[in-house]
Amino acid sequence: MTVELFGIMAYVLLMLLVGFWVARSIKTNDDYFLAGRSLGPMLATFSIFATWFGAETCIGTAGAVYQYGISGLHADPLGYSLCIFIMGFVFSKVLWNRKITTIPDLFGKRFSPNVEKVAALIMIPSSIIWAGAQVRAFGQIISSTSEITFFYGVTAAALVVLVYTVCGGLLADAYNDLIQGLAVIIGLCILLFVIVNGLGGIGPALETIHPERLKLGTPEGHTRSFLGNLEFWLVPIMGSVMAQELVGRVVASRSSKVAFNSCFRAGVIYFIVGMIPVFIGLFGVAFLPDLKEPEMIMPLLAKTHLSSVGYVIFVGALVSAILSTVDSTLLSVSALVSQNLILPSFGNLSETKKVFLARGGVLIAGIIAYGIAFTSDSIVGLVELASSLGGPSILVMTSIALFVKKGNETNAMIAFVLSIATWATCHFIFKIEFPVMMTVVMCAAGYFLSLPFTKGGAGKEMKD
C-alpha cells in the first residue's frame, strides 16, 4: 500500500468517525435532513461552500482551463459564485421563513400535493447525476494514486460514500464540511505555491501563459452563436440556484439572518478559492504540455511536485471536496423521495421509521449514482447535464410561488409539463444551442398565458 493511498484511507476513516459520532443524535427527519434547523454562521458558511465546491471545481475546471484557456471557464468559479449570491440576496430569507424541508414542500403549500410530486420528480434526476459526477471523480483520485483500476476505484468510492452518507445526516455533513472546507483551502494553496515556486515565482509563472489563453469567448474548436454563448453562462446559474443541496443549507440555518450572511460569505470564499484551479490549469501547460486527459492535470501536477506528506494533504483536499458534495446530493435525493413522494401516503409513520426510510433512500440513490458515474467521460459534462435538467423550471416556478399571488394548480402543471417537454425536445431532438433559455421562456409563458383560462385566482397558501 502506498503512503498516498494509506493517507486517503486514514482521512476517509476520520470523516466516517465524525459522521458516526454526530449520527447518535439523529432522532427525527428534521435531525437527519436539516440538522434540527440549528446551523450557526460557521457551520452554515462552510457547509454551503464545501457542498458546492466539488469535483468539477477542482478537477473539471483545471482540466477545462488547461485545454482551452480562460475561454473554457464559465461555471466555476464565477457561475456558481453568482448562484450562491443570488440565493442569499434574493431567496434565503423568504425560503427560511416558510419553514420547509424541500422546495417541493413550497409547491405543495402554494399549489397542491400533485404539483409537489411533479416538482420532486423533476429535481431528483439532477441530484443523482451530480452525485454520479462526484463518485466518478473520487474513483479517478483513487486510481491515480494507486495501482487500482478506474472501475475498481469508482466502486470503492461508491462504497465509501454510501457508508459515510447513510450513517450521517446533515449535521454530520455540516461538521465534516467545516473540516473538509479547511482541508480544500489548505491543499489547493499548497499546490499552487509549489507550482508557482517551481516556475521561479509569480512573475515568471505569469509569463508562461500565452496571451491567447487569456481571451474570453468560444473555446477553440467550438462554434456558438450569441444565444449559445449566453446559454453557456446561464446553465450553472439558472440550473443550480434552487438545487435542493443549497436550499437544504439555507433552511437548516439557525435564523434567516444566518442564512443570508452565510450565503454571502460562502460565495466570496467560493470565488477566491475557485480561482486556484484556474491558475493551476493555466500554469500546468508549462509542465505537461501534451496531456491527453486534461482532467488529470491537477492530480498529476500534485503527484510530481509535492512531497509525500504534501500529496497526502492535497489528495485529502480533493477527497474533502468530493465527499462534502456527494453526501449532500444523496441526502437531497432521499429528502425529495421520502418527504415529497412517499411520506404523504404514509403519514402515521413513527420518526424512527421515517429516519430508516430516509437512510434507505440514500442507499438506493447511491447505487444509481454509481451506475451514472460510468456514463460520461467528462466530470464537467455530467455536472452541466445535472444543472440544465429541471433546475431552470424549478427556479421559475419557485419565484412564482414566492412572489406571484395569481395562479393555481392547473397553471403550475401546465408550466411544468411545457417546460420539461421543451427541454427534452430542444436537447434530444432538435439539439439547439440554448435549451435552458427556451425552457425558462416556455415555463413562464405556460404559467402566465394560462391564467385567463383557469378558475380561481390564488393558490392555497395565498388564500389562507
Radius of gyration, taken over Cα atoms and rounded to an integer in Å: 22 Å
**Strands, count:** 0
Helix-strand pattern, N to C? HHHHHHHHHHHHHHHHHHHHH
Overall body shape: globular
How many structural domains does the protein architecture include? 1
Strand content: under 5%
CATH-derived topology: Sodium/glucose cotransporter
Helix content: over 70%
CATH architecture: Up-down Bundle
N-to-C terminal Cα separation, in Å?
A: 63 Å
* Global structural class: mainly alpha
Tally of DSSP helical segments: 21
Residue windows where pLDDT falls under 50 for at least 5 positions: none
Reported for the largest beta sheet, the result is: none
| Average pLDDT over all residues | 83
Superfamily (CATH H level) name: Sodium/glucose cotransporter
What is the CATH class? Mainly Alpha
Task: Spell out the blueprint of helices and strands.
Blueprint: H1 3-23, H2 29-34, H3 41-52, H4 55-68, H5 75-97, H6 103-110, H7 113-144, H8 150-167, H9 170-198, H10 202-207, H11 226-238, H12 244-251, H13 256-287, H14 297-305, H15 308-342, H16 351-372, H17 379-388, H18 391-403, H19 409-429, H20 435-449, H21 460-463
Describe the structure.
- The structure is a single chain.
- The chain has helices at 3-23, 29-34, 41-52, 55-68, 75-97, 103-110, 113-144, 150-167, 170-198, 202-207, 226-238, 244-251, 256-287, 297-305, 308-342, 351-372, 379-388, 391-403, 409-429, 435-449, 460-463.
- It is mainly alpha-helical and 464 residues long.
- It has one domain: Sodium/glucose cotransporter.
- Helix 5 crosses helix 11 (226-238), helix 7 packs parallel to helix 19 (409-429) and helix 14 packs antiparallel against helix 15 (308-342).
- 56% of the residues are buried.
- The model has no long low-confidence stretch (mean pLDDT 83).
